[in-house]
Description:
The protein is an all-alpha fold. The protein has helices at residues 3-8, 10-38, 45-65, 70-106, 108-137.
Amino acid sequence: MNIEILSDNPFIQALAISISMAVFMIGVAFGIINMANTGESPMPFALLLLIFAIVFITGSVFFEERGADHVGSLIGGCIAAFTLTFTLMAFFSGILYTFNGGIDTLGWENIVSALAICMISSMVLIRILSHKLQNQLV
């Protein structure tokens, strides 16, 4: 198969993006389940702090470049850093949960159903965001 043909096909693009987002959503959900059951973080605190710091700095600069005042850019950077750090921590916890028998615990039917629901919701989200971005750019 020619990779260029697949990358230009809108059906393959939509399917690939939808599946990728769905797998990430399920990973985060499994991670939240795992962290609730174990009460532990899957990543060392120093690594979490480093991720938070990098996203905080880049987020603050991003919001300041977009016209936010100093306090607003710091708050926006903090919210972005907290959200991304928690999401990454939950995703990696979900990977650990999967490798430690989480799939057997939940059952294949539930996982396939969750994948289908996440694929549908990610496609709806992609379409809504692309529609909103097209209206803003025009």
